[in-house]
Amino acid sequence: MDGFRHEGGCHCGAVRWTFETAHRLEEFTPRACDCDFCTRHRAAWVSDAAGSLQVRDPGGQLRRYRQGSGQADFLICGNCGVLVGVTCVDNDGLRRGAVNRNSFDERHLLGAEVVASPQQLAPEAKLARWSQLWTPATLP
């Protein structure tokens, strides 16, 4: 892919990711979900449906947590507890994901966040929205 390669991961370095996109970090507006889980983690999500996301977990520390509608897997480091990303499987069977702005190595370059309220959507509408916004992803 022509463009930019952005890196990030958890605090201890056990879970890392690479996000490839045609966009500079300054061009992104992180989406701050207003659900209780995301607000407790101060999470705001960054994704590009035309990009790619690869999550790496060589030490086996990646943990998955489901809540709400149970459609998304929140990706958390089992060692340091950092919420690094979220993934789902769309209706076409493609894994898609978004990364938490707080887990970018160069998070200071990201723009200001906007609030999103996916909890107001029905489960089918959530999956449709994520299918349009989230990045094709590979996980260990």
UniProtKB/TrEMBL annotation:
Alphabetized InterPro entries for the sequence: CENP-V-like, CENP-V/GFA, Mss4-like_sf
SUPFAM superfamilies in alphabetical order: Mss4-like
Keywords: Metal-binding, Zinc
Residue intervals of the CENP-V/GFA domain: 6-131
A Pfam match: GFA
Family listed: Belongs to the Gfa family.
Protein name (Swiss-Prot/TrEMBL): CENP-V/GFA domain-containing protein
